[in-house]
Specification:
about 300 residues, alpha/beta, Rossmann fold, Alpha-Beta Plaits, 2 domains, six-stranded mixed sheet
Length: about 300
């Protein structure tokens, strides 16, 4: 378990956390929030790169502040826009990271290359980091965080810059490691439908405050998407459906032959379905809806 206990932290001109507490105990945890909410700072505090002003962070009851090296041996980290010394090869980086985790250089190299092969870039192991494309750098960032099978892995925007196939591969790989090797993941991402697929726990922070935390199953059971689009075959059908839906007190907007309907609860959704001659298409995912409701995002 990661236990963040009443921490406070400020930059010279901005307070980030004030008596902030959070317990993370899922296998794959999604940590989400708007830009500037404090997510990346929290990762730096959890890894000991920055020190809390007050309070404590414990990882499996080990204090990050007093046992930073011990925790880092059990933790893999990928920061957003991770950069590595550009002149070194991927092979050299893998050996170095493995040594930091207590591995023999040859073991780290072998395991790292195996992970790179999964992502289709094992043949780049003797390339210098600076020569990689953005997507390749992203894949390497994931690989170096996973070597040694650390118990905790913190990934900041791991699927950014990845194509669809690589994103699916990465997400499935995280699930395999979480359930087969009992590794624990904390994933920061703005791609919320990715998190919805793999996370068993979600925490939302905003302006340095925890505003929602629950299991993904609870979210799916208790929240619904509140906007749906309906594609009609002609203007006459669109006019007819729009009048029917509006007569039920639901808000509508129209663009061409596409009608967008806003609902407020599951009862309205149930009453909407019989009125619609074609498929109701959710405008966003359930997790995106929860995030919008929680942080007050203006999407109009």
């Amino acid at each position: 378990m990661i236990n963040i206990d009443q921490i406070s932290f400020s930059y010279p001109r901005k307070r980030i956390f004030n008596d902030f507490s959070l317990k993370l105990d899922g296998r794959i945890i999604g940590l989400i929030g708007k830009n500037g909410a404090g997510k990346s700072t929290l990762v730096q505090l959890m890894t000991g790169l920055r020190r809390v002003k007050s309070g404590d962070i414990y990882i499996d009851d080990i204090n990050v502040r007093t046992h930073r090296k011990t925790n880092l041996r059990n933790m893999g980290v990928m920061f957003e826009d991770s950069e590595f010394p550009p002149w070194a090869t991927l092979r050299e980086h893998l050996r170095f990271v493995g040594q930091l985790r207590g591995m023999k250089p040859s073991e780290a190299e072998e395991e790292g290359i195996d992970i790179l092969n999964r992502f289709g870039i094992g043949d780049k192991v003797d390339e210098k980091f600076q020569n990689l494309s953005a997507g390749m750098k992203q894949k390497f960032g994931i690989a170096q965080a996973l070597i040694g099978s650390p118990k905790y892995v913190i990934l900041d925007e791991p699927t950014a810059n990845l194509d669809v196939g690589a994103r699916i591969l990465a997400l499935e790989y995280f699930q395999d490691l979480a359930y087969e090797k009992d590794m624990r993941f904390v994933i920061l991402s703005h791609i919320l439908h990715d998190l919805e697929k793999v996370c068993d726990e979600i925490a939302i922070i905003d302006d340095g405050n925890l505003i929602h935390q629950s299991s993904m199953s609870e979210i799916m059971d208790n929240y619904i998407v509140k906007e749906y689009s309906i594609r009609l075959k002609d203007s006459e059908s669109c006019d007819e459906v729009e009048k029917l839906v509006s007569s039920k007190g639901m808000k509508t907007s129209r663009r061409g032959l596409t009608l967008k309907v806003t609902i407020h609860n599951s009862e309205e959704l149930d009453s909407l379905r019989p009125l619609v001659p074609s498929q109701l298409i959710p405008v966003r995912s359930v997790l995106e809806q929860l995030f919008i409701d929680s942080v007050g995002v203006d999407i109009d």
